[in-house]
Structures are given as C-alpha cells and as structure tokens.
Amino acid sequence: MESDVTRRRALILGLGEFAKAKFLTSEQQTGLTADLAQRYADDPDSGVHGAAEWCLKQLGAQDEITEIRKAFSTGEVIGDRRWYLTKTGQSRHHSPSDAAATELLPGAEPHAEREDYNSSLTFAILDASDEFLMSSPVSEAERYGGPTGKSEIRHRRQIGRRFAIGTHEITVAQFEAFRSQHDFDRTKARELDAPGNNITWYDAAAYCNWLSEQEGIPRDQWCYDPDQPFQEGMSLLPDYLQRTGYRLPSEAEWEYACRAGTTTARYFGETETLLGEYGWYTKTSGDKWMLPVGTLRPQWSGFL
Question: What is the DSSP letter of 171?
Fold first, then answer.
C-alpha cells in the first residue's frame, strides 16, 4: 500500500531481516513470498527489485527467483522497468559449426548451448542527468590523504546521461562463460557465484566486448576496438561513452551509483557500524575466501 518508493525499499529490507532471523510463521512466509515475487517481477524501481530479491533469498525462495529471471532474461527493458536482465546465460554461445557465428574475441571460447537463467546479469538503469557531489568532504574520517589530501577534493559533477550498471560483481561462473580456462585463484573464490578474481583491466574490457556480442549489439557499437590487442598500449575509442555496448563504468558513474543520492562517507551513513550488513570485509567474513555475491543487503540503487 505504501506509495513512497524509498519507504517501500526500507519496508522490504525490514521484512528481510525478520525472515533472516526466523521470526515469521509459515503462513506469513508463504504470503510474503507471493507478494515479494510479484514485486520482484513487476515493480519498475531497481531498488525495490534488488530489495525484493534479497528478501526472497532470506525466505529460501530461490525457485521463485529463477522462474522470474527466466521470464525476464531478454536483454531488453520490459515496460517502464528501470532494470533488466541480459539474455546471456540462456544459450547464446556460438559453436564452431555455426555458419552464422561471428569471429570469437581473443580469449573467448565456444560453449555448448545451455540454460542458466540465474547466470544472466541484472542491470540497474540510472538517470544521471542532474549534478551531484563527488569525492569526500574534508571532515570525512579515513579520508585518503587526510583533510589536506588532494586526491579526494569534493566537486560538482554532471554525467548528463542515463546509463545501466550491473548490480553485483561478475562471478566466476559468469566470467567462465567467456573464458572457461581462466586462471582464477580458487582458494580465494571457492564458489561459482563468488566474485571472479585475477582479472586484469584488459580481461574485463574483452569480457565487455564479448557480452556486447552475445547480446546482439552491432559491432560498430562495441566500446573497445576489437581489432586492437587487449594489452598495454591499447587506446580507447574516442566516442566509447556514446556507444551502446557494454563497458567498464567511469569513475563518476561508479561513484554516482554507489552513493545513490547520499553525501555521507558510506551509502548508509558515516560510520562503519552497518558496513557488515552491506559488504563482506575482513572483520565480518572471518578473513576467509571471497563469499558469494548478492547475499548481503542491497543499497537503494539495487546493488546486491
């Protein structure tokens, strides 16, 4: 019934905390799962979408998540939603015998067809047409270089466009779809849904071009020149920010997305108190290996 989107997000996260703490009856869990599955599929807000997914995970409703992802893994924005799922993971890989196959990118490998809707990537769509404050105020604790440091000078920045950004790190499974023999450190990334590691900037750029290819984006819209070697010395295409292919976010885009409209040191406030609710780090992970993505609270933009 709540019409304010910020309150809807907060209420869903609160319900997720009740579910995680096992405070809900079986009847409440059943009703909440049905309600949230509908919101996960239908609410246009990327933050509500992310909050609903996290809450459904606390309810153990992975089957419901999978069914909805199956319906929306189209690579297109459906309706007025400000989020979408890629179709990669739905069996878009080329095979050597495919006469219509395009040239594979360096480092990419052919794969057999498969169906894995949970490996599709979720993107949040953000409108960055307004100015925002970028970098840290001099009063921020642990500011890089301290109050007089020159690397984090607060300034006004305007990106001036809409862009889509992935809602979590690329996982081992997602990167293996591109390069099955990649040299991951599996002592640090033990699960397939853990963040990928040992990935250079050049590996990431090649992955972005591969993703553009898999999603059917024309070659002249890829953001990195596929005819250049993906190694030190490669140059960016002059109009790469205007192209519709996939790429790494700019520093301004990354900060705009992570801040989610806030001006505090962290999205959720100034102190470290709640950091463990939103991100794994040494104090909360027990200094273990890299843990699966999407297991902690998302922030308002929908990041998990």
Answer: B
Q: Name which of 186, 15, 164 is nearest 84 in CA terms.
A: 164
Residue spans per domain, the chain: 1-72, 73-285
Q: Which two tokens stand for residue 201?
A: 């900037």
- Place 89 in a pLDDT band, splitting at 50, 70 and 90: low
Of 46, 298, 40, 295, residue with least CA distance to 171: 295
**Tens-digit pLDDT profile for residues 221-231:** 999 999 999 99
Report the amino acid identity of residue 145. Answer: G
Q: Provide the angle, in degrees to the nearest 10, between the axes of the packed helices 62-72 and 46-58.
A: 150
Token pair for 188 = 């640090």
* The token pair that represents 181 in the structure block: 């023999």
CA distance 247 to 89: 18
Here the tokens at position 186 are 């599996």
Enter the tokens of residue 259.
């801040």
169 in helix, strand or coil?
coil
To the nearest 10°, the Cα dihedral for 281, 285, 291, 294?
Answer: -70
Any bridge partners for residue 163, and if so which?
A: 126
Residue 146 — left, alpha, or beta (φ > 0 → left; ψ -120 to 50 → alpha)? left
d(CA 290, CA 277): 16
pTM of the entire predicted model: 0.88
Name which of 196, 198, 204, 197 is nearest 234 in CA terms: 204
